[in-house]
Write a structure and sequence with these properties.
Family: Belongs to the SELO family.
Shape: globular
Strand content: 5-15%
Pfam family, one: SelO
Radius of gyration: 25 Å
Keywords: ATP-binding, Magnesium, Metal-binding, Nucleotide-binding, Nucleotidyltransferase, Transferase
Structural class: alpha+beta
Cofactor: Mg(2+)
Helix content: 40-55%
Oligomer: single chain
Protein name: Selenoprotein O
Length: 632
């Protein structure tokens, strides 16, 4: 009836992808190559005693699911995979991917299941998935399950990135259970039983670059090929489907000129991807696994695994402890995303030749620089464009790196730096410099950050090998960046050997004082021809605080919530979600100070419950135990 809100049983599914793209209807869930299909029909595997860890009201509202429906017991049954929603058709998506630079052949949804597409009351179409719902033909040797810790991280970060204003998939619910799976977290022979947990994921589509790599011929390096190699008919169908439904303006303008349409589509994907990674860089966020199968075809953040927000600024920050070569470091993310765009061009070359797409790839750098510079000017409170602004930004990052200061907190506090000429300029300037020094690292922290993982003899062996046998250098390419970083760490440790906290603090003070002199000179240009400095100051602060978050999902915040949830207390996850829903707000009542829940000081720092029992202010520098957290 008109005017009635949908119930879980009356959601408007239309499942367009399964109607318009080829589907494999085999009932075999065993590992196999799936030829000539974009999806395989599958069924979720039920779990024992499912229960809700957390829900996102705003994400579920996209599906017209109201709060009363979330409270029903059926909600847990539907979104754990124990029951199928009326109108839902469950399937797993077939895709390939370049993983850590090498083509890996067929991958696919090994732990995710398409539930269908829902048309909401606004006419928006949203694809929904369950992640962790059991085996599919793409699970390979795995069990198709996800566990509580990884699911909480994905749930919270999906919502955190959304509320930061960055395009992303959403997370509607996180549901755990009494079903158990065995996981060896660090692959060190110490497995443990963990709870099967399922996340409801929401996006316009979960198509990715790797969706178009199922047509790839044999790769010269790995000898893998896509399962639908030679099926140009399916490639064209997939392209047309993607453009018509997710790039409708391009479809409307170009559908009669297919080659021009495909080129314009590729151009827009390159631009969206460049803007997306610029957004990540501006909040100090690392994806961790930027393989082509983790790159969204509509330019949103997708597949949250070993991600990480930087604490101390380090351009070579690697959030994924499995990324030994640092391929997906913070600094390299733009370069890698551009490389992935090149792989997408290769994947669709039977529809639009590389001679047409290669020039388009050059737009990536242009779009990235434009968007990054625009966001950075806002972060520094600069309204007037000046050619020397990039130099100012770079000198800020250099000072951040040399002092190993906190990325998020320093950017947030930057809005407190006064305009030259205000009556309290000197007093406020001194206060800001003092704060920046407090956010810089101590000697003990720097020693911890610069711990060398290799023995001296190992490093020397690598270097001797490279020098004596140059022909081996291509084989060492994967580890060489890491070796250089380790040598740099050794040099830093030598410098720190006789350094005291007092002398280090003085150095930090001198460095920040020098940078703020540059900043003050730049701000002189901002106030030129302005009569009301107080109004300009307030306007700048408002702009800066709208793009420099106070709260982000730091690893220790996530770990604290996970450790509590693993003991059956989900309140911390829900509190952190509320915190992350307003990342730019100063006033967050009852959430600024959250107590760790029963964590013992002597628990081991293994990346699980290794935390100190103390009160933590969530917008301060991370506690010392946070340096020991590792995410793989």
């Amino acid at each position: 009836m008109a005017g009635l809100k949908p119930t879980l049983e009356t959601l408007h599914f239309d499942n367009l992808a399964l109607q318009l793209l080829p589907v494999d209807h085999s009932a075999l869930v065993t590992q196999r190559q799936v030829h000539g299909a974009c999806f395989s029909k599958v069924q979720p595997t039920p779990v024992v005693n499912p229960r809700t860890v957390c829900v996102s009201l705003s994400a579920l509202n996209l599906l017209d699911i109201g709060e009363s429906e979330m409270m029903r017991q059926e909600f847990v049954q539907y979104f754990s995979g124990n029951r199928i929603l009326p109108g839902s058709e469950t399937a797993a998506h077939c895709y390939c991917g370049h993983q850590f630079g090498y083509f890996s052949g067929q991958l696919g949804d090994g732990a995710a299941m398409y539930l269908g597409e829902i048309l909401n009351e606004k006419g928006e179409r949203w694809e929904i998935q369950l992640k962790g719902a059991g085996k599919t033909p793409y699970s390979r040797s795995a069990d198709g399950r996800k566990v509580l810790r990884s699911s909480i991280r994905e749930f919270l970060c999906s919502e955190a990135i959304h509320h930061l204003g960055i395009p992303t998939t959403r997370a509607g619910s996180c549901i755990t259970s009494d079903s158990l799976v065995e996981r060896d977290i660090y692959y060190n022979g110490n497995p443990k039983q963990e709870q099967c947990t399922i996340v409801l994921r929401i996006a316009p589509t979960f198509l990715r670059f790797g969706s178009f790599e199922i047509f790839k011929p044999v790769d010269n390096q790995t000898q893998y090929e896509g399962p639908s190699v030679g099926r140009t008919d399916i490639l064209l169908t997939l392209l047309d489907y993607t453009i018509e439904h997710f790039y409708p303006l391009i479809w409307k303008q170009q559908w009669k000129k297919k080659r021009e349409m495909y080129l314009e589509f590729y151009t827009e994907v390159v631009r969206r991807t460049a803007r997306l990674v610029a957004e990540w860089q501006c909040v100090g966020w690392c994806h961790g696994v930027l393989n082509t199968d983790n790159m969204s075809i509509v330019g949103v953040t997708i597949d949250y695994g070993p991600f990480g927000f930087m604490d101390k600024y380090n351009p070579y920050f690697v959030c994924n402890a499995s990324d030994d070569g640092g391929r997906y470091s913070y600094k390299k993310q733009p370069e890698i995303c551009k490389w992935n765009c090149q792989k997408l061009a290769e994947a669709i070359q039977d529809a639009v030749p590389l001679s047409k797409t290669e020039p388009v790839l050059n737009l990536f750098d242009e779009e990235f620089d434009r968007h990054y510079t625009m966001k950075m000017r806002k972060k520094f409170g600069l309204k007037k464009e000046q050619t020397q602004d990039r130099e100012l930004f770079n000198s800020f990052f250099e000072t951040l790196e040399r002092t190993a200061a906190d990325f998020t907190n320093c950017f947030r506090y930057l809005s407190n730096f006064p305009l030259p000429g205000l009556s309290d300029y000197e007093e406020k300037k001194a206060d800001v410099i003092k704060y920046f020094v407090s956010q810089s690292s101590t000697v003990a922290e720097l020693k911890k950050v610069n711990r060398v993982r290799y023995e001296n003899s190992q490093l020397m062996l690598y270097l001797m090998l490279a020098e004596s046998r140059p022909e081996m250098i291509p084989n060492l390419r994967k580890v060489m960046p890491e070796i250089v970083q380790e040598l740099n760490k050794m040099e830093r440790l030598k410098e720190l050997k006789d350094l005291t906290d007092e002398s280090l603090s003085q150095k930090s003070f001198e460095r920040w004082s020098a940078w703020f002199e540059k900043f003050a000179l730049r701000l002189q240009l901002e106030k030129a021809d302005v009569s009301d400095l107080n109004s300009l100051s307030e306007e700048r602060k408002k702009i800066m605080n709208s793009v420099n978050p106070k709260f982000v999902l730091r690893n220790y915040i996530a770990q604290n919530a996970i450790a509590a949830a693993e003991k059956g207390d989900y309140s911390e996850v829900r509190k952190v979600l509320k915190l992350l829903e307003t990342p730019y707000d100063d006033d967050v009542p009852d959430l600024n100070a959250l107590e760790l829940n029963g964590l013992m000081e002597n628990e081991s720092h293994t990346g699980q419950a290794g935390c100190h029992a103390q009160r933590i202010i969530y917008d301060e520098k991370p506690p010392e135990w946070a340096f020991d957290l590792r995410v793989t």
